[in-house]
Write a structure and sequence with these properties.
- With about 325 residues, the protein is α+β, with helices and mostly antiparallel strands.
- It has three domains: about 120 residues; about 50 residues, SH3 type barrels (Roll); about 80 residues, Alpha-Beta Plaits (2-Layer Sandwich), CATH 3.30.70.
- It is about 60% helix and about 15% strand.
- The protein has ten helices and eight strands.
- The longest helix is centred in the N-terminal third of the chain and has 32 residues.
Length: about 325
């Protein structure tokens, strides 16, 4: 350490000259790269390249600084070239890893975002990404210094198997949640029916990578694990549509006349759509005859409601008009 300080004091003029040249070169190169990144970011409409640009600027600056310091100290202290170069490699690996961590975190956050821009990526997922990157860094650094990593890999392999078996259900639920949130087939505001769980239904209030929170018509909150969602049949009344379908199954005597009764049912349904608060005014009701048995005609009627809270009122209005 004393020898290092003495060398610094012996070459003050050379040190100042090197610092000036490196600083000038560094800033010119950095400004050129910055302008190039700004130009490329403006050409795209996505937010990803803007975020990458924001992360690249300080990362490039730090990498340039490390490279400049490496060049500077390598020229000033040739006796310590090996130590300086090793330190430079370690710092470079850590800086690049930090940049990769930021980009991966942003990509996961961008993918796992609901339509209301609510970020559903939990903090522990960021910690998992960071842990994996640091583990890769450790392996790279040990490999660079010619240190055997076989015992380390064996230890982590055994630990991974033990943890995987212990957290089998939790991991299954987690990865099922990742699939559900990223595909966005179920979103906040949808009215879904989850079959085979037992059957539950309700309005989706919250989505994350571990569970989905439903709210039924009685204002009860139901927490459904994502693994159950992934393995069950789901009816999403709002998927790719702004109308909630209200299904009603009824019957009438055949002797009352099919055409006459059909007209009465459709007139009542159309009147319901126009006058009932919560019904979709321009929705055309659909009537299907399902079967005829025992002198009875069975049918299914489809009405349109604005949201799940209006479904009961729409059906009530229809029955009032039908039996008026």
């Amino acid at each position: 350490m004393n020898e290092f300080i003495q060398n610094l004091l012996k070459k003050p003029l050379e040190l100042v000259m090197y610092f000036s040249l490196v600083f000038l070169f560094l800033n010119i190169l950095f400004l050129l790269i910055r302008k190039g990144l700004v130009y490329l970011a403006k050409k795209s409409r996505t937010k990803l390249d803007d975020f990458i640009f924001i992360q690249l600027v300080p990362t490039f600056h730090l990498i340039f600084c490390v490279c400049a310091l490496h060049w500077l100290f390598s020229n000033l202290f040739t006796n310590y070239f090996s130590t300086i170069f090793d330190t430079f490699i370690v710092l470079l690996i850590l800086l690049i890893s930090f940049f990769i961590f930021k980009i991966l975190s942003f990509i996961f956050a961008h993918v796992l975002t609901t339509q209301k821009n609510v970020n559903r990526i939990p903090k522990y997922l960021n910690n998992v990404i960071l842990f994996i990157i640091l583990l890769v860094d450790l392996v790279l650094i040990l490999t660079y210094f010619h240190i055997s990593i076989v015992p380390l890999l064996t230890t982590f392999g055994v630990a991974s198997v033990v943890i995987g078996l212990a957290l089998q259900n939790t991991l299954s639920n987690f990865f099922a949640g990742l699939s559900i949130v990223s595909e966005k087939k179920i979103q906040i505001g949808d009215y879904v029916v989850v079959k085979s769980w037992p059957t539950v239904e309700g309005y989706v209030e919250d989505i994350n990578v571990t569970n989905i929170l439903l709210k039924d018509k009685d204002n009860n909150k139901i927490i459904v694990p994502c693994s159950k969602i992934a393995t069950s049949s789901i009816i999403n009344s709002c998927y790719d549509d702004d109308v909630m379908y209200v299904n009603y199954e009824g019957e009438f005597l055949a002797k009352a006349g099919i055409k006459k009764t059909e007209k009465k049912i459709l007139d009542s349904a159309i009147k319901t759509q126009r006058e009932c608060a919560g019904a979709v005014p321009n929705f055309i009701p659909r009537l299907y005859f399902t079967k005829i048995a025992d002198d009875k005609v069975y049918y299914r009627l489809v009405l349109g409601a604005e949201n799940y809270r209006s479904m009961d009122s729409v059906l009530t209005y229809f029955l009032r008009f039908l039996h008026k």
